[in-house]
Amino acid sequence: MRRLNVVPLLVVLVAAAAVGCGDDDDATQSSMSVPDAASSSEPATTSSSTTTSSTTTTAATTTSSAGATAPTLPPDDRPRTPPADALADLGGLPGQASFEALAGEVVRVLEERFPAEEPNQSTASSAAASGAAGTVAFRVDGLADDSLAGWDYTVQAAESGGAWAVTAASKVAICRRGVSGGLCT
């Protein structure tokens, strides 16, 4: 297996996470494992992690020709509202040349939507694609609200005519105490 640096996705993630964080002790790590095509059917995996004093951003992109792997976020058993449409939250993202570029744009737009204003606020993201379909999962947590802790987004994408575009998006509120009537209590 050979290791390569992932510049396009990492640059977007690092730039989005570092906005407004002037600390010199920010840590950034990245790696990419790409199997030799002749010796393995193992999926290619890209991951990066950025930690700053006010946010933590984690992203992983897995591309597999042997079947889609669902993107995963850290386990969380807090109550959630039913899914709601979230296409408007993405502001009509333009098509991208690759799934990785589209996933990076989704993360950038959502991180801009939820700027790190609280010391405990964090974001996490994960993405997976197979063939001409992919999914991006994004979580923002630690919002300064007595009933709403954060949001989980699921963004579906597809490749058509050489460009990747968002086809559907949903969001689920992460509640601190519970859900009543489809709202956090």
Structure, explained:
This protein has 185 residues and is mainly beta. Helix content is 15%, strand content 41%. The protein has two helices and eleven strands. The strands form two sheets. The chain has a nine-stranded mixed beta sheet with strand order 1-2-3-4-6-7-8-9-5, with helices on one face. A hairpin with a 2-residue loop joins strand 8 (148-160) and strand 9 (163-175). Helix 1 packs parallel to helix 2 (99-113). It is elongated, with a radius of gyration of 17 Å. The N and C termini lie far apart (49 Å).
| Strand arrangement in the largest pleated sheet | 1-2-3-4-6-7-8-9-5
Mean pLDDT: 73
User: What about the largest sheet?
Assistant: 9 strands, mixed
Radius of gyration: 17 Å
Query: What structural class do you assign from the helix and strand content?
Result: mainly beta
Shape: elongated
- Poorly predicted tracts of residues: 1-66
End-to-end separation in angstroms reads 49 Å
- Oligomeric state of the chains in view: single chain
Along the chain, the helix and strand elements come as: EHEEEEHEEEEEE
Strand content: 35-45%
Q: Which bin fits the share of residues in helices? A: 10-25%
Number of helices: 2
Beta strands, count: 11
Summarize the structure.
This protein is mainly beta and 185 residues long.
Q: Can you give keywords for this protein?
A:
mainly beta, 185 residues, disordered N terminus, 11 strands
Write the layout of secondary structure elements.
Elements (H helix, E strand, L loop, with lengths): L1 E2 L3 H12 L8 E8 L9 E8 L4 E8 L20 E2 L13 H15 L8 E9 L2 E9 L6 E13 L2 E13 L3 E2 L2 E2 L1
Helix pairs in contact: 1-2
